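Holo model, zinc ion. Inputs:
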Amino acid sequence: MDEIKLSDDVFEQIKDFEYWRLTEEQKSLIDKLITDKELKKRYKIDGLCKNCKQPNTGHDWCQPCISNHFQQNFKNWTSGNHDVDAFIQKAQLKTEDINHTIEWIEYDKFEDVEYLAKGGFGITFKAVWKDGPWFNSQLKRKGETKVALKRLHNSQDITADFLKEVESNILVYLTCWTVRCFGITKDPKTNNFIMVMELINDPLKRPNANELRKLFDDLLVNRHNNNCIINKQIKEADEINKKSSSSSSTAQSPLSSTSTLQYMTHPQAVYTSRILDFKNLPEPKNADSNDDLLGIEYSESIKVDFTKLNINSENCN
Ligand SMILES: [Zn+2]
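Output:
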């Protein structure tokens, strides 16, 4: 079956509309011109791609056009490893937004590489990425950006494991709560592949446990006050939902199973944790890659015989 597309004629008639605030007249024209439900929905949520003249597939994002652009560019880069190339290519072809887009980055694009931490998985360095990541669908770059370079032990030999790790990092990226993976590079000296990750800035400026506790106490005490930030946010969210459900052509309750809740996140509404500044901690037990797992002494808390636990009991007491 042929893919349903908007005709050039329809595109010409609607290309100058502001899809996020259509007039009543424009709305009824859209309803008349775009009969396909899916295309209409995409248009109303994300507008038009001026390049292919079809509705976008995401916010400021036209997947067919972006995929096409990436594909044209495949010949211009290689990691030197077939599996890594294929992995990045596949991820680029199916990427749904800029935050899930990865790329191959030459190691010489990084400077000021400094050791940061060591763990069971490998070693993390911090560095400055001169070009910085793409930040929009025109693939504009952010410029100089501090990043974390996460090097897995012996990743030159365990490409499959390394790629699995990269994949789970891309999949898990949902919001600013998680750390974004920008791509892959390779240390030319050791031939180890390296994940290029977002570096959470200024860990020492984040609230400490006491400050967080005070914050939560304040929220608890003020929860009945209408001006409390949580109540304000609930009110705002309700209003956004009311607007989005009344502006939708098929009026739905915000909680009906087919509608999507749309919230705007306040850029400063997210609090992140801070590294605890304990002195003289011993090296992590798994820091040494040669650890013999059988020789590791486990803590008391996990020396439990699970077969003796009555976990199927109906009384949870
Ligand atoms: Zn397009």
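The chain has three domains: 8-56, 69-203, 207-248+258-271. Confidence is low (pLDDT under 50) at residues 249-260, 289-301, 313-317.
Archived with the compound record.
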